[in-house]
Amino acid sequence: MCTGCVEKEYPDRGNTCLESGSFLLNYVGCAECNKRDFVLITNRSQEEEDGEEIITYDHICTNCHHVVARHEYTFSVVDDYQEYTMLCMLCGKAEDLISILPDDPRQMAPLF
């Protein structure tokens, strides 16, 4: 992973968790070849471990294949919620929690 290729390391992305793709606004260009182009996704793997889905891949420079960052995305169901996480030097860090119920109990107004 290369700190010279990104504007900010692990930017806070709130609840935006990317299963695929790249956050190009944070990409300043390749520190190896000094070109700013798209980044490729390689070495993508998907595995399931204890009910948790884990997707990992590398962001690499289109021109010289320099590794810009390693991306990790996880998904799991805990109780009545779907949990998503993302950790990547380029795309950032994020967490999201979504209810699997029709009405999210966290957003219900108290009756009294």
UniProtKB/TrEMBL annotation:
Domain of life: Eukaryota
InterPro entries documented for this protein: Churchill_sf, Transcrpt_activator_Churchill
GO terms, molecular function: zinc ion binding
Keyword Transit peptide: no
Taxonomic source organism: Geotrypetes seraphini (Gaboon caecilian)
Family listed: Belongs to the Churchill family.
Pfam families: Churchill (PF06573)
Official protein name in the record: Protein Churchill
Keyword terms of this UniProt record: Activator, Developmental protein, Metal-binding, Transcription, Transcription regulation, Zinc
GO annotation terms (biological process): fibroblast growth factor receptor signaling pathway; positive regulation of DNA-templated transcription
Keyword Zinc attributed: yes
